Amino acid sequence: MKRFIENYQGEEFDLIVVGGGITGATVAYEAASRGIKVALVEKSDFGAATSAATSKMIHGGLRYLSTFEFGLVRESLKERRVLTNIAPNFIHPASFLVAVYKKDKVPNSMLKIGMLLYDAFSFDKNRLWDKSKEMPSHKSISAKQISELFPNALTDGLTGGQMYYDCVSHSPERFTLAFIKSAIKYGASVANYTRVVDFITENDDEMKIVKGVSVIDELSGKRQDIKGKLVINCAGPWADILLDKVKKNENNHELRRSEGIHFITKKLIEKHVFLGSTALGKHFFLIPYRDHTLIGTTDKEFIGNPDEYKVTKKAIVELMDDVNNSFGNTEKIKYEDIIYTYGGLRPLVEDQTEDVYNSSRKYEITGEKKNGIEGLITVEGGKFTTSRMLAEKAIDKALRILNYPNKKSISEDNYLVACDIDNFEEFVAKKQKQYSEFPPEQIEYLAKSYGNELDELFSIFKENESFKETLNTDGENLAQVQFAIKNEMARTLSDIMMRRTGLALLGHPGKETIIKVSKLAAKELNWDDKKLEMEISKMEEILQIPE
After folding, report:
1. Which pLDDT score, from 0 to 100, does residue 314 have?
2. Measured CA angle at 25 (ends 21, 27), to 5 deg
3. Nearest to 274, CA basis, from 152, 455, 103, 452
């Protein structure tokens, strides 16, 4: 992976994608795989914002049944199957338990109907390439069974519940990167740390025609114009701000943004995901995650500049209180139990609902002719699970605008880069045997992260034996750091520790680990002492729990 902006010579692209989150990544892949000459620019790192602030689930959206969004549920369930097929190392089935109490707005009988519908909409869920990932249908669970599965679940008023299956994502950050790598495989030019500061436009009668974007390479400070026949705005929570650069503040449309936060604690649950509800009927999840528990999420409207967004103590306490009111028999979660927090902003297209929790997660793909602009498409809304389908529809529209032949999409039927694995269980067993000198749990974790690139990662150990030292209980190591820099366009300490690896995603990994990683990064990226200190300082700031 090379940042094309460093050697850009002024060629014109068919399509420029602005934004390197999951939406931009899937759009770039969809375009490149259909033969479109595409460039993608991202102002930060790939998947660094909303795409990294997820509950790590790929799901159909059970709660959207209550708002009668049956089309969205069906599309999501179909795409859950597609993503499980094309990325078997990243997407895995998981069991979810919905506990029902007398106080809940939805009784168990109604939930049962919802489960029957959910099973009906996922009729093709086991048409999978990897048969080891087949999922059973839902089943009813008694109050006694729930207490056995979750000893810390409240028992007062517990009437029973339902167990169903959805999927979890091993690493949304690396999953996003897999789409970037797949786009590159088909010829896409990509660059992180490349910020759009303006649009290149021409005027034709009453229309403003977009001819490309003007960007600044944040690593070199150099400004360049990138020419393109069409631009797709995939900037997520920044989509309206980007659009204003071409509209010049005329007829502003402000995107609605919803804040979602999560925090991580010690292990509170074992095998199953626990789905509970707050006093106001909103849902939260307790998710098994790397021998810890991931808790989320919120849905609260955010007003302000998305660049200034950060997780606050108030938001964490609100979520913690909601969970404590609905979970925890003897021991409640205390603020000091929280080892890591993260959050992000979701772009919403619906503004008719007062509460963003009830806003739809549908997406919109719109041309900007209504605003007097040609050569620009804006994508708004959506969710991680439906990102591939969104991209397919966006490129269908792009091909019509460009007047190119509508070449059939191949993204549904082909593995992502390094994900060509027929049976993941057999793949892991084979690699555990091949690398028998390493703990089997380490091989499984790294197999999920790297898929078929695992052998390339392990070849680095042959060059430097010291890289075999494990830096956490999952077996992550310095070989991954070198791999991230040389093969995956990592340019900052947070790129390495939060998106190419999970070293910093369970809270502070310890000063010694940060120093080891940063020293290797400094060597590979030619940082001077000042740059090294700055990167460590930034990392420490990111990992700080709000006070």
Report:
1. 96
2. 120
3. 152
